[in-house]
UniProtKB/TrEMBL annotation:
One Pfam short name: fn3_6
Biological process terms in GO annotation: proteolysis
One function term, GO molecular function aspect: serine-type endopeptidase activity
Keyword line: Signal
Domain of life: Eukaryota
Name this polypeptide is given: Subtilisin-like protease fibronectin type-III domain-containing protein
Family: Belongs to the peptidase S8 family.
Domain Subtilisin-like protease fibronectin type-III: 87-184
Originating organism: Acorus calamus
InterPro entries noted in UniProt: Peptidase_S8/S53_dom_sf (IPR036852), SBT (IPR045051), Subtilisin-like_FN3 (IPR041469)
Length: 188
């Protein structure tokens, strides 16, 4: 639902916030759910329960009892390497940066659309960073096929900003769009 949401309202205008003004990136988030597009998303970012268990244990520091209550099964948190939100195969990007830094992550998408399809890249770059993606085109020959891509976020301009937003979007030749929000925070 996240990747097929729209960032405009039902009349094609900008989404409003709780005050009636134009919503900023953080108020819009993934956007307004579009049930017809959510039914045929084209590409999905798969994650399993195990991925969340690792994240809860290693990144958020949940106890085994807390994770067991969420997962519904016994969990041993002792053997997991430290992961961050960027390590999850999640359809959005939350990037915490230090001045002069570069953040890098990988994502994998699964084709749930047409067998023979290709997706080109569109990026709305958040202010203050560059966004580079490799590869810039994803080509699929079968349903269920997966492709991975690397995303780099080097700081481009750290002058007077703290928070910024944009998106990364894969667009197929058939008009299917798969949009992932990008939220960037700069810390001194």
């Amino acid at each position: 639902m996240m990747t097929s949401a729209t960032i405009v309202n039902t009349k094609g205008g900008l989404i409003k916030d709780e005050t009636g003004g134009t919503a900023d990136f953080f108020a819009v988030g993934s956007g307004q759910v579009d049930p017809s597009k959510a039914d045929a998303p084209g590409l999905v970012y798969d994650m399993g329960t195990g991925d969340y268990v690792v994240y809860l244990c290693s990144a958020l520091g949940y106890t085994e009892a807390q994770v067991r209550a969420i997962a519904g099964r016994p969990v041993d948190c002792s053997g997991y390497a430290k992961v961050t939100e960027l390590d999850l195969n999640y359809p959005s990007f939350t990037v915490n940066m230090r001045q002069g830094g570069v953040v890098e992550t990988m994502r994998t998408v699964t084709n749930v659309g047409e067998a023979m399809s290709s997706y080109g890249l569109v990026v709305a770059t958040p202010f203050g960073v560059k966004v580079t993606v490799e590869p810039r085109k994803l080509e699929f020959s079968s349903v269920g096929e997966t492709k991975s891509f690397k995303v780099r976020f080097p700081i481009a301009n750290a002058s007077n900003w703290r928070f910024s937003g944009g998106f990364l979007q894969w667009a197929s030749e058939k008009g299917v769009t798969v949009r992932s929000p990008i939220a960037v925070a700069l810390y001194p």
